[in-house]
Amino acid sequence: MMDGLKISIFIFIYSSLTFLYLVPNVNGKAICLNCKALKNCKVPANFVAFAKTYDQSKLVDKTADDPADAKLDVCLGPKKKISGTLTNYICSGGTDGYCHAITNATDDMFTLELYCAMCQLRCPCEGRLSLGTGTRTRETAIFVPICLAAFYILV
């Protein structure tokens, strides 16, 4: 009878600890991602884009007694901090003038790369060619007449 109780207690404790290990973002610590895609993406320091609207309330102003976080302060606008656990990601203009992706700490590299790609699309990078303008339009304008001329010659 006692052996069964010991085994039951052991299984309960083991499964409880395993559950805590498997739950992502238990501590809710926000991190700034090192995105290669955003390396040259300059944006205003006050730029912010939220993936989910309920994360807007988590970006708050710093108070005088808030400790400095050297890694996260560069990624956020001046005198801003994140309070609470993010539900998704935030694209933010940092004090260094570049766009940054901010999310909760996780080991899922696919998710981190996805957030970087999403911020690459959402950040209004200076010098980025928008659809329908720039070099691509000029190339298309040259390519179409060449194709028409080739078609005319072949017919």
UniProtKB/TrEMBL annotation:
Protein name in the entry:
Uncharacterized protein LOC108612139
Q: Which organism is it from?
A: Drosophila arizonae
